[in-house]
Specification:
Layout: E1 2-7, H1 10-26, E2 31-36, H2 38-42, E3 46-50, H3 66-82, E4 87-91, H4 94-106, E5 111-114, H5 126-133, E6 136-139, H6 144-149, E7 154-157, H7 169-179, E8 187-191, H8 196-215, E9 221-224, H9 232-242, E10 246-248, H10 253-259, E11 262-266, H11 269-276, E12 281-285, H12 289-298, H13 306-311, E13 318-320, H14 326-337, H15 340-354, H16 362-383
Parallel strand pairs: 1-2, 1-4, 2-3, 4-5, 5-6, 6-7, 8-9, 8-11, 9-10, 11-12, 12-13
Helix pairs in contact: 1-16, 3-4, 4-5, 7-10, 8-9, 8-14
């Protein structure tokens, strides 16, 4: 079987790698080509374009990249015409991947989707498009299933892949030794995001807030688990300019979750990971003013942190756009840090939310669902 797979971001590649590995174990002779990153390449993806060719951040910022994105889309369409795959596997990234799905559907190619677009948060009109061009969708949150079944899409919840992902004790001890933490002080994770644009927007005000927190008399070990997508020298320059007592831990995200007592987290997947680890935290985020203006007018949810969306209320505080100031971060952080009862309550609520996301083994169950769909589709095609 030949698949055309497309992931548009590193987060999609992080899903795509283990998903392709599980699919290969269940579909003999599987070959996959398309667009992905290092994890998908490691599992045998033959690249048609590098992952970086699709990476765009922001609703407004995408406009200047449209010519390049359309050239890639047209090339994928030509590939479908010249060497039609048996199926298309799309991973999140709806702005681009819905166009790929439409092109595949027009050519009679089955379309599977892993990790639903956030149609429950904004752009609900995409539900109609999905109902027309997607044959099978594997979702990460249980509340997403009825959204799709109501419109006739074959949807299945296979659990969230972050459940069960944690560092080993050896990794935790290695990180602890490398940081030279000051004994007796809490450990605070500083997580500004994994994109360079997020680092530039989110880290400076966080560093200024850390300075203000220090002036209040509160002391802590601040640790920044630098994502592999970021340059260490950029983070170091910002930290040096702010004279902030922040240690950098490259690639230390998962181990830090077992060391951290508290965290400051930019909105994104990290908020769910920190929540699953049961670490009390606050959420921050900032985008360009025009992007924020547009997003506010199309959003259907009141919160941006997934733990708050799942709970349908504010379990962790959110400081977004104009509210994301060093002073507000200081006040919000200290209100949590100095209130042990509040921390305990947050841990209990985060633990309760984690139980709703299934058991470990999400990629295996997702691969089983997709493989079974493809086999049934192939059987019907042969019988028909």
């Amino acid at each position: 079987m030949n698949l055309l797979a497309v992931a548009g971001e590193l987060s999609g590649d992080a899903h795509g790698g283990p998903l392709l590995r599980e699919l290969s174990a269940r579909i003999p002779g599987l070959s996959v080509e398309g667009i992905g990153g290092p994890q998908m390449l490691e599992e045998g993806l033959s690249p048609l374009f590098p992952l970086e060719s699709l990476q765009v951040h922001g609703l407004v910022e995408v406009v200047r990249h449209l010519p390049r994105l359309y050239r890639i889309l047209w090339a994928l369409e030509a590939r479908m015409d010249g060497a039609p795959p048996d199926a298309v596997l799309l991973i999140d990234y709806p702005g681009f991947n819905l166009r790929v799905a439409r092109a595949a559907k027009a050519r009679g190619i089955p379309v599977c989707w892993y990790s639903s677009p956030q149609v429950w948060a904004w752009r609900r009109r995409r539900l109609l498009v999905i109902s027309q061009v997607v044959d099978k969708i594997v979702v990460l949150f249980p509340f997403e299933v009825p959204l799709y079944t109501r419109i006739g899409v074959d949807a299945e919840f296979a659990g969230h892949p972050l459940v069960g992902q944690e560092a080993t004790e050896e990794e935790v001890q290695t990180l602890r030794s490398s940081l030279d933490l000051e004994p007796g002080l809490p450990v605070v994770g500083v997580m500004p995001g994994s994109r360079p644009s997020e680092l530039a927007r989110n880290l400076p005000p966080l560093l200024e807030a850390i300075g203000l927190i220090g002036e209040s008399g509160y002391r802590a070990n601040y640790v920044l688990p630098l994502a592999p997508t970021l340059e260490r020298r950029s983070a170091e320059a910002m930290i040096a300019a702010a004279r902030a007592p922040v240690r950098i831990a490259p690639g230390g995200f998962l181990p830090l979750l077992k060391l951290a007592d508290l965290a400051m987290v930019a909105s994104g997947t990290a908020t769910l990971q920190v929540g699953l680890a049961g670490v009390p935290f606050l959420v921050v985020y900032r985008v360009s003013p025009l992007t924020y203006w547009f997003a506010k007018r199309v959003a259907y949810v009141q919160h941006i942190a997934m733990v708050n969306i799942l709970a349908e209320r504010e379990v962790v505080p959110e400081l977004v756009q104009g509210d994301f100031t060093p002073e507000r971060v200081r006040d919000t952080f200290l209100a949590i840090a100095r209130d042990e009862a509040r921390q305990a309550q947050m841990r209990r609520e985060l633990k309760a939310l984690a139980t709703s996301l299934g058991q470990p083994g999400a990629y295996e169950r997702g691969a089983v669902a997709i493989a079974e769909f493809l086999r049934e589709r192939a059987t019907r095609a042969m019988e028909g």
